[in-house]
Amino acid sequence: MTQISVTPTLPTADITAVFATKEKTGFVISAGKLTSVQSKKLAAAAKSMKFSGSASELVSVPGSTISVNGIVMVVGVGENPNHETFRKAAGIIGRNSFGAKKLAIVVDDENVDAIGAIAQGALLGSYSFNLHRSESVSAKREGVKAIVLVSSDAKNPLVREAIDRAEIVSNFVNETRNLANTAPGHLPPAEVAKYATSLAKELKLKIEVLDEKMLKRKGFGGIVGVGQGSVNPPRLIRIEYRPLKPVAHIAFVGKGITFDTGGISIKPKQSMHEMKADMAGAAAVINAIAAIAELKIPVSITAFAACAENMPSGSAQRPGDVVTAYGGRTVEVLDTDAEGRLVLMDALVYAQEAKPDLVIDVATLTGAAVIALGRRIAAVMANSDDLRNHVVDAATRSGESMWPLPLPSEYRPKLDSAVADIANIAEPIGSALYGGLFLQEFIKPGQKWAHLDIAAPAFNSEGPFDYTPKGATGSAVRTLVTIAEDVASGLLKLR
To answer: Which domains are seen in the chain, by residue range?
Structure first.
């Protein structure tokens, strides 16, 4: 795990990084800890490499050029940078510092309010996943061991607080990435429950794990039905965080399909290996509650992770089967590859028994959301326009891209079933909306609810960018933490 600290003086480091803004006349390096002579030499070296200061632009200069040890990186933040610009720039620094023992990032006094974003970007950018690599290979692919932020305001308690928050949130985003990157044979539902149990014990959180026998006895027909085709039985994980004086209660519900073949309605072989990340929603809610607990945010959280492996076999559920959801409603399974909504429906009904003020579900639910919004943007639906818009705003402030989609009531009849209360799919077009409409059927009248379809941003199939690695991204953790903070501060009122 990468360590992070803050100091007022420039340390000796393998890599020293500075930011540069783009101006009409060129670029300006924000390097208050360098001498004027060093700054001029650095600017001249960067200019000779055609550096312009544009956002995400990076050049590296030998430290000997300006009498500094190691390598000096200059990263552009463009014109009028905001916190996310600095977060991305710091992520680029982190990604380009693999193998280094110490990275020093100079924070200009004028940008000290962005220090939390810089810390977070650097930590997220330094992420590496080596669980399945041999020792000799993984040693070459480790992220930087220590990050030091250099700021004249280092002794300011607010700066330390911002860095502490960034470290906690980033660590749990990276744990979410670890879970969704783990090979599916290594992480069946029982192993997700084991991780959650260990985490809950460490943070002194209450946890309950329902195994396949308990799920069947209590009538969780969706989770049992999806998991019945696998030799790895399903689990429903419930974790509780209860601060002393909570201002509200939020339930997080996560889809945890530890591997999704599509079941009998089997998927094409292309990219099926990426379906190990179909449990990214469950990973997000487990780690979000952990981050909120460690940050001591005064909001009660109950997290539910509905975990199953969707496999084809002689015991798998069939298209045309009817399952009974927790709570008694019947569902015709027209497509076994629309399984996420089946495990979520059970968990949503169960979550509402805790009487939360708000329910948020997080799921890699539909390929249609990817078609609608591209590879990097999550869809947000809610039974309140104000709530939906607040979630999108919280995501933006967190540095995550989300966009509102509707829940058109006129589409609901398409989910009618000829033999059961509701069908699990409708027509192919607009299927992201049908996924949301299906889930809404299991929300009680008056219950505030939002649905995050993170199918697109949860797993990055392309090359790394900014602070985002190739593979699992840890999507939605930052947004969930920000929403809890908004409730605690009164920015989002639930009561």
So the answer is: 3-155 (3.40.220.10), 174-489 (3.40.630.10)
